[in-house]
Amino acid sequence: MYNLVSFAGIFVLMAFAWILSANRRVINWRVILWGTGLQLILAIFIFVLPAGSKVFLLINDAVVKLLDSATAGIRFLFGRLALPPGTRNEMGEESLGFILAFQALPTIVFFASFMGVLYYIGVMPRLIKIFSRIFTRLMRISGAESLSVSSNIFVGVEANMTVLPYLGTMTKSELCTVLAAGMSTTASSVLALYVFILQSKFPTIAGHLVSASILSAVAAIVMSKIIMPETEKPETLGFEVSPHYQKESSVMEAIINNANEGIKMVIGIMALLLAFLGLVALIDFLLMSAGLRLNSLIGIGMDWSLKGLLGYLFYPFTLLIGIPVSDAFEISKLIGERAVLTEVKSYQDLAVLLSTNALKDPRSAVIAAYALNGFAHFASLAIFIGGTAALVPHRTKDLSSVGFRALIAATLACLMTAAVAGTFFTEGSILLGR
Prior knowledge:
- By secondary structure, this protein is an all-alpha fold.
- 71% of the residues lie in helices and 0% in strands.
- It has one domain.
- The chain contains 17 helices and no strands.
- α1 (2-19) runs parallel beside α11 (205-227), α10 (188-198) packs across α14 (325-355) and α14 crosses α15.
- The relative contact order is 0.16.
């Protein structure tokens, strides 16, 4: 029954996006049909076909082994602080428990360097061009936005560098797609952080997050083209374009440059968490103080925290993507929390729910992992608009005007991805664990 709910949710979410559309008279049916079809085909390959499951598990194991390699440097630098919960080092010292700053965040530096090496030897440009070709030919969107969306499957805001020659002349619809794709997908370097947080309770989480990023890239095209349909003629419509990037002079330079970028990313994430967690704690204090008085006056037990209020807002969407009623409010609070506190905090709270067996149905964790996989929050809206505007300052006004619509499109894209995963979920799937 819940699989059918998830399947219906795919189309209800698109209908909701159409209600919010900037021009409801313009509907690109080719994008909608091919975009939805591609997601369903990919989900069938992953969840249903035995060969797809084997590929999925192979990717999962590869990411986990890379993560194990990444911890070598962390253990050398931080010693006992780097030990995961329940482990000991060679000297017999026990772990001090999970410490985000010393165990998970440093993995970003390793994966940033690793991605830099893959770019240098030409692996990433080839992969990006394959996805770009598929999007351009099947959905008939511009080559520039296809390339940007494809890049976002693997990297973050720096994906816009691959289409730098075209950013200045993109239409508003193209800009909306570029921003939405950036906020609905997850950079490979940050993906390692989520794997580290959830792996002990969710062994196949790496494979799920990789597939979620690919699905969300397609969903971002669909949702952005519904919310901000194309009414102009893009310069690269129907044409394939090649990635624009500056190649380092050596592998060592690629490692060094990207390690430095990884450090900047770690500091940025820490700064956001410090600022937002503190501000939200202050807002929660004010809301809870007023809410407790109101509860006593009208005799209800409403949760007045910011997380709780956003949970009420996202509750219908949580039911729509196929989360069982027994777990719906807990998951809706995580989705709402992501909008304000970033997906890092949401994944941490999901890990807590799993470790305490607070979720009653295994499908809830799987669908939540897909729904939370993306940068669809207010902090990233500023990051992506600011980062892109820095490349093309004369488009700042246009970027600002489509920014909030792009955030809505990205949020709906993540929910659509979760609904697709929920459509093919089975409790007997080998993808739940080993």
